[in-house]
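About this split. The held-out portion is used to measure sequence recovery: a designer receives only the structure tokens and must propose an amino acid at every position. Recovery is the fraction of positions where the proposal matches the reference. Here is one held-out target exactly as it appears in the evaluation file.
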């Protein structure tokens, strides 16, 4: 299994830049954007195994971004970032297809572990789809790609 490709989505620029540095030092291949729309555009250009997505963003919020990601890239795992008072939103997000959620402010090691678990699940789902794909089917892309 290759290194996890992670897309961070958070409208708080300082937080985003800080988290990009920390996750890069942990050996993850990570990129960041500041809106849901930017996330969707970036995902059209490159494959990501895991998206770490803030729920509370202006314009397109995290729940709408999650729905669009799961509709177009069902094998991409999404970890939601939510504030302490919005645990219910995190649980709703899991019902909508998110892998898990993490409370802000967060323990970076907890986030890294959840990213690793989500990456492993993404790869297992991809391998299963390849193994069970009908001969001559269109399966065969890498995990994180829409089918």
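Reference sequence for scoring:
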């Amino acid at each position: 299994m290759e290194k996890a490709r992670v897309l961070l989505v958070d409208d708080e620029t300082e937080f985003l830049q800080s988290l990009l540095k920390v996750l890069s030092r942990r050996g993850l291949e990570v990129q960041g954007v500041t809106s849901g729309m930017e996330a969707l555009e970036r995902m059209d250009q490159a494959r990501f195994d895991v998206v770490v997505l803030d729920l509370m963003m202006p314009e397109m919020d995290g729940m709408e971004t999650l729905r669009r990601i799961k509709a177009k890239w069902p094998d991409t795992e999404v970890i939601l970032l939510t504030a302490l008072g919005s645990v219910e939103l995190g649980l709703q997000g899991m019902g909508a297809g998110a892998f898990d959620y993490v409370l802000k402010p967060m323990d970076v090691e907890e986030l890294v572990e959840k990213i690793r678990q989500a990456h492993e699940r993404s790869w297992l789902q991809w391998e299963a789809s390849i193994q069970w794909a009908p001969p001559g089917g269109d399966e065969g892309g890498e995990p994180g790609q829409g089918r």
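Annotator remark: The radius of gyration is 15 Å.
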